Amino acid sequence: MSIRLIYPGAVTIQAFHSWMMPMFSHFRYVVFAVALVSGPVCAGARGDLSAFTRGLKTLQGHFSQEVIDTQGKVKEHSIGTVALSLPNLLRWECNTPYKQLVVADGKRVWLFDPDLNQASVRFQGDEERNSPLIALIDPTQLDRKYDVSEEVTLRDGLRWLSLTPRAGTEASFQSASFGFTQAELVRMEVVDTLGQRTVIAFSGWQRNPVLAVDTFRFTPGKNVDVIGDR
Question: Which residue from 132, 196, 197, 136 is spatially nearest to 169, judged by alpha carbons?
């Protein structure tokens, strides 16, 4: 089933689960992974990532996302806020053009569309590990499953780390790139298996803010239609 949800990389629940959720639900492993991959001293995009994740426990910021088809036409555009708390709590909230919400509470992932008064829920599981960030989450897969490169020159004023799945690797994307400036992640670009491109710009990061406990809770209203595993 498809619900009109505007989340990273797709307009379907299934596509959102395929690669965006793992970015946050397994984010606790990023620091360890980068330490193993990068070494004590590292320049370039890997060094930026290492600095960005060092000491990270909670994170809050804003995003602007575009989904672009193979003809270069913008299909979807959304603006909202994101919050995460390690190891596996996430709140991804779209405010424009539609109000839509994703909450991962550590056990379940909720996707709520207030316009439809409908929520989808499922358990957080192993399938979430199929993500473009898996190479950063699990360093043993970095060179075994992906071709990793750092762009030599700046693009859009950013330093880029790019991942391309190797032949025979099961992945939900063709390529993924992460743009950094001054050791801060400011952009993420993912090309899916159909050639559709998702560009997410991040801004206003707050590192280790104190977040309210109910930030990562979702309780459906009495009249909300709930679909999935409760």
Answer: 132
